[in-house]
Amino acid sequence: MIAYCQKLVAELDEEDNNYSVEISDPILLSEKLIEVTLLKISKLRTFVKEKGFDKPEDEIHFFKELKPKIVSKLIYYNAIYKIETRRPYGGERSIKKYLNNELSKLKRFFYNNLEFYKYYRTNSSYLDHKYFIRGNFDIKLNLDTFFFESDQTFSTSHDYKVSKIIANDLIQVYLEDQLLSIKRFPGLKENKPQKVKWTASKSALVELIYALSAYGAFNNGTSDIKIISRLFETMFDVELGDIYHTYLEIRNRKINKVKFIDELKEELLKRMSDQA
């Protein structure tokens, strides 16, 4: 069990490093890593249900030490995704206020769970049989509603809370690093270009996205079309909906399947001719 879990953690760390090199946008990176982490958790859940534990000490070790190493990554990536998708487009002051507010949320979680923080941080174990054995929960031990809705064949009353503590430490580092970058480069955020809105048709944008994907313009042609479309939606403040359906409509056109791309070519050549 320990070896298998450590193998999954190592694989996840390696994929994290690889995708971090390939994908610079934190939103797209988080989306991809959430997907990868969910697959690892699914494998882990299946393994636990099939193999089980030989003794209570093994179960406690798994839910206190091993599972949180992976679940904390899922919590972290999801938090970064939310932070970045909700980040304001205002100046330095509004961004700092936003980031500090996110830090305040972490502090509230800390104070709301202060007793368990003390227990976990001091490596205490006298309540491990209640915190980290399935089915041994104690309603008096400050349980989250989330626990009652979770898969209790793969959860204990406090393993998620451990994951949350680990993730919050990482989120705090991320937020403080963002604030530090503003301090180091004052005014940089204020000079950020205003958001550009897509005003041509949505089908035109889908046509362009598929053309760029077919050409291999992103990550040497390895990027998923969903990730590319999400990037364009974010950049151009547009919701494309079911891009596959739109693509099928484009592909089934009777006349001029790539109408928008042809028009782009004509307009660019015209501008070049006019400026000659």
From TrEMBL:
Under the heading InterPro entries, the entry gives: Tet_reg_excision_RteC
Report which superkingdom the organism of origin falls in. Answer: Bacteria
Matching entries from Pfam families are given as: RteC
Q: Which organism is it from?
A: Chitinophaga pollutisoli
Q: What is this protein called?
A: RteC domain-containing protein
